[in-house]
């Protein structure tokens, strides 16, 4: 775009919504590939650990040398991992998982490509999940709403970035019950840096928001574990709420927890009634934390506090 275009146009809700469609298409790639990349890394760690004779001797000092079968498994794993084709966010090109058809540029147009193909692969006719256009549309709506909420100012771009990361985290956690540090940590540190630069909250508010977010769920986790002997949630939930606290402040922590708990419970009960709960009979908490964070971002912390009579 020409450099002399006014900021009011560049950051208008409609332009941001169009940008959101494109970002949503990118998020679909992140949602699909990042967990696979992480799992590859985990298997690499397993291979390394299985073949680490020094570590074996330190931990199992009275068990003798590492078993040969274990070393063989480590070599087999390493060989299998090295034989896998490269997988990154930018490459390889997107392909149909059923027939391997490389997605053409016009088939990959946000929202329009899926509609034009009528939700099916052009080569083999396999169904393409409706979640792809829904992620694109949801990101577009969020970007447009953020543009309307914050106006045409540079910090609006930051809030759009926060929304994009939350969408990715919610979808990944729903699919895999994992909230990747590769997204959680940049979101957390980004909130603290933005506050330190004076772009969002006072730094003390952001810092205590991060502390309150982490410790609140950390305390619940340990209370539940000590009383039941089971783990009620993962550490990724602590980090996500800490990141939301860094962006929204400590005052937002209770409303976020209330909203996410109530909605999560309703969804969990509904899934239980339909016998659609996954193995272990639980629902990931991250999507509801992310959704509640987006509500507080768009409505404003003071408004949300007013809803619960705390304003």
Structure, explained:
- The chain is mostly helical.
- It has helices spanning 7-10, 13-50, 53-59, 68-83, 112-117, 131-150, 155-176, 181-196, 203-228, 235-248, 253-273, 286-299, 301-307.
- 68% of the residues lie in helices and 0% in strands.
- The longest helix is centred in the N-terminal third of the chain and has 38 residues, at 13-50.
Compose a concise summary of this entry.
The protein is an all-alpha fold.
* Distance N to C terminus: 43 Å
Low-confidence stretches: none
Percent helix, as a range, is 55-70%
- The topology string of helices and strands comes to HHHHHHHHHHHHH
Number of strands: 0
Can you count the helices?
13
Keyword list:
311 residues; 13 helices; mainly alpha; 68% helix
How would you summarize the topology of this molecule?
Elements: H1 7-10, H2 13-50, H3 53-59, H4 68-83, H5 112-117, H6 131-150, H7 155-176, H8 181-196, H9 203-228, H10 235-248, H11 253-273, H12 286-299, H13 301-307
Helix pairs in contact: 2-4, 2-6, 2-7, 6-7, 7-12, 8-9, 8-10, 9-10, 10-12, 11-12, 12-13
